[in-house]
């Protein structure tokens, strides 16, 4: 960060209600972004799949050609316009993207000039089967992205993941090793894994990898208990609001976690704009208090970084 002033800013997590009417969803997101900017947010995060219902039947129908832009992508055109006119950075949740004959679950990041500066295609598709509770197979319609996405913005270095990406600690470890201040995860956890994993993953995203590998090597699984804030950065999640009438019922609970693993701001499942302050100077402070990075035993374990970074 260039200055202490830039190290402090407000973030908004826009937990939006999503309908089957795309135009309405776009207008609704526009209003939420304007409200968030009006409340002083400089970074605005939207939910996973905010312009379409979350279903394999809907993805092909609502998908937009982001690279073509303009009329081919009214959702990202709106995000670009607002980031430019309101001078805010937008991590635009995700929308179904059409690229050739493939569909992706894609997050677009816009800088304060309205420029698309990153496009993250969900790397880990949500294919799970918990009998009687939750079955979903994104891979029925979607293709997985191939690259981690970390980007320098006016509000720090941000690593991006989409929902199920948060379950894979290696991605967070790579972002941390590349100097991320903040990880943003637009997500739509459900009523089964939401209560179990949503907050846990967000708070644990910092420490898990090192501890897991140490645990395996040393066969001391109790290390896993100490999940809290090892990578010592900020993590923001943003979900759609819950709609009990939809085929996929989202958990909600958009949350900001700080570099001690502490919940700084959260909400329940209704529509909400959660505003909270981020102060990157606390990252350094926490790392001084708990110098994990210096203490890490690279002679015993390592994160292998294949260095494929996503771009637009
Ligand atoms: O990881 C989970 O349990 C939920 C993931 C999810 O809902 C998604 O990727 O859309």
Report on the structure:
InterPro entries: C-N_Hydrolase, C-N_Hydrolase_sf, Nit1/2_C-N_Hydrolase. Keywords: Hydrolase. This is CN hydrolase domain-containing protein. Residues 9-280 form the CN hydrolase domain. The chain is α/β, with parallel strands linked by helices and 312 residues long. The protein is built from nine helices and 15 strands. The strands form three sheets. Strands 1, 2, 3, 4, 5, 6 and 15 form a seven-stranded mixed sheet that branches. Strands 9-10-11-12-13-14 form a six-stranded mixed sheet, covered by helices on one side. It has a two-stranded antiparallel ribbon with strand order 7-8. The radius of gyration is 18 Å and the shape is globular. The two termini are 23 Å apart.
- What are the distinct ligands in this entry? 2-oxoglutaric acid
* Domain count: 1
* Share in β-strands: 25-35%
Helix-strand sequence: HEHEHHEEEEEEEEHEHHEEEEHH
Q: What's the quick description here?
A:
The protein has 312 residues and is an alpha/beta fold. The protein has a single domain, classed as Carbon-nitrogen hydrolase (Nitrilase/N-carbamoyl-D-aminoacid amidohydrolase, 4-Layer Sandwich), CATH 3.60.110.10.
């Amino acid at each position: 960060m260039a200055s202490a002033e830039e190290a402090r800013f407000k973030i908004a997590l826009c937990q939006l209600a999503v309908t089957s009417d795309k135009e309405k969803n776009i207008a609704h997101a526009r209003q939420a972004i304007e409200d968030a900017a009006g409340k002083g947010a400089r970074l605005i995060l939207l939910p996973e799949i905010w312009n379409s219902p979350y279903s394999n039947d809907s993805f092909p129908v609502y998908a937009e050609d982001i690279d073509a832009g303009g009329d081919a992508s009214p959702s990202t055109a709106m995000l670009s316009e607002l980031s430019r006119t309101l001078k805010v950075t937008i991590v635009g949740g995700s929308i179904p993207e059409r690229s050739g004959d493939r569909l992706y679950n894609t997050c677009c990041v816009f800088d304060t000039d309205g420029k698309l500066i990153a496009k993250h295609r969900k790397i880990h598709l949500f294919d799970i089967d918990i009998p009687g509770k939750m079955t979903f197979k994104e891979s029925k319609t979607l293709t997985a992205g191939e690259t981690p996405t970390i980007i320098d913005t006016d509000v720090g270095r941000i690593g991006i993941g989409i929902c199920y990406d948060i379950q894979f600690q290696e991605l967070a470890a790579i972002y941390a090793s590349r100097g991320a201040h903040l990880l943003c995860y637009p997500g739509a956890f459900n009523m089964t894994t939401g209560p179990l994993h949503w907050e846990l993953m967000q708070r644990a995203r910092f420490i898990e990898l090192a501890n897991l590998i140490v645990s395996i090597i040393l066969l001391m699984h109790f290390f896993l208990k100490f999940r809290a804030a090892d990578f010592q950065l900020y993590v923001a999640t943003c979900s759609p609001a819950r709609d009990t009438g939809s085929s996929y019922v989202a958990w909600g609970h958009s949350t900001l976690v700080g570099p001690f693993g502490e919940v700084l701001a959260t909400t329940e499942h209704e529509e909400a704009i959660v505003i909270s302050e981020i102060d990157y100077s606390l990252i350094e402070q926490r790392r001084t208090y708990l110098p994990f990075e210096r203490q890490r035993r690279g002679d015993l374990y390592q994160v292998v970084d294949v260095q494929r970074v996503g771009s637009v």
